Amino acid sequence: MTSPESLRRRRSRWSVASALTGLLLTLSIPAAVPSAAESIPDRGDAYMGMGVLAHDGEAATDDDAPVSVPRATQTEGVDVASYQGEVAWNTLWNSGVRWAYTKAAEGTYYSNPYFQQQYDGSNDAGMIRGAYHFATPDTTGGATQADYFVDHGGGWSKDAKTLPGALDIEWNPYGDACYGKSKTGMVDWIRDFLDRYKDRTGRDAVIYTATSWWADCTGNYAGFGATNPLWVARYASSAGTLPAGWSSYTMWQYTSSGPTVGDHDRFNGSVDKVKSLATG
Description:
CATH superfamily: Glycosidases
Mean pLDDT: 85
Largest sheet: 8 strands, mixed, barrel
Radius of gyration: 18 Å
């Protein structure tokens, strides 16, 4: 099993290599392209925001569009994956974190070996928690991956402390940004995942994505906004313009380098609203 320290080093190499290449391209300086071993992670190593960090960097600057949603009372959260290993959940609770998502699965070939410590540990600390699935639409179908996700920790129960599962659909860290799919093909894949997840759990899954990826890879499809909560990724001072179909976000991943472990997020509402989403 890959150690947490090895995963951290791999994440750092991938992020630094991607950022350096982007900087040199911006400056029009010929750059030595990082080797495949440095720039492409191993299957299973992907985490929420990996593609966002590589594509947009830590501080997005596209502030030409107005903020879509006013800043209201918000509740701090985190998302974690296997590279964090055993998480100090009490420390996060004491820092103000009240909800958490843990990576459960990726494709149909990987499940997080630290899932139980991370998922149960956040709950034991008093947090409302959920699980997420890193989608790989180029490997298997949406319904197949939804089944794998539910069978590996992504289910839901009406206990007021379990959030609906989240589909992490973003830039592909292993190859083509849109996983080799047409815009229509991508929408169909996402719909298949969401339909099967609802059939299995009775809940509409959360969709985690970034606005520019959504535009490029789904053609600004607007058909999921009425049913599926949005978790938007944008590392800036505001969530900015949202993907087509949503007039507001439920969650916002605002940084990948928070003051404590994990990517940091804000829920668009009070803790009571977080509990309402968990309750269904």
